[in-house]
Amino acid sequence: MTQRISTAETARSGILLALLLLFQYLGFFVGNKPLVACLVNFILAFSAFTLRLNIAVILAIISPAAAFALGIGPKFPVFIPAVMLANAVFVFFCNLSYNKFNLFILRILGCSAGALVKFLILWFFVSSLLPYFIVLSENERHLLVLMYSFPQFITAFLGAFLALIFAGFMRRTGLKGEDRRC
């Protein structure tokens, strides 16, 4: 049975997608990649908390492709599927922990697991699979491994942490909108 998407959910999805692209576009001008990555992960985690899982995963998948199309995403198109997969897994873990647990610390642990898996996916792709797609010097490869490893975990964790705080604030103040559970 298919569920209909409400107007409010469509509006929230559109706003969150616009914020994703805005933050990525601002990062193009500001140049602070860790801040931009933290904000993007914040929006991904927040969408996992406030939207249905399938819609949040669609946002996670659309984001790197749209960023690349606008010229603000990954430098190599071969990165896009890896980032899509890593974002989708991160959103899945965030959604699961938010809907399954009521304690803040357990939600943090669940989102941390998602951040860890995201980091592992990107690290594995860059360190093991990327050399089969792109010829890079040893220095370039080493730099990419550094960029797509531990910093990815930190920015995903911080984004999810801030999204949990923000979602809790919205719930306490009554700004959450309609409740949805998948």
Structural class: mainly alpha
User: Quick one: overall form?
Assistant: globular
Kindly report the average pLDDT value. 87
Cα-atom radius of gyration? 16 Å
H/E element order: HHHHHHH
State the helicity in percent bands: over 70%
Distance between the termini: 13 Å
Tally of DSSP helical segments: 7
Beta strands, count: 0
- Report the sheet with the most strands, covering strand number, pairing sense and barrel closure: none
- Give start-end ranges of low-pLDDT stretches: 177-182
What percentage of amino acids are in beta strands? under 5%
What does this structure look like?
There is one protein chain. This protein has seven helices and no strands. By secondary structure, it is mainly alpha-helical. The chain is globular.
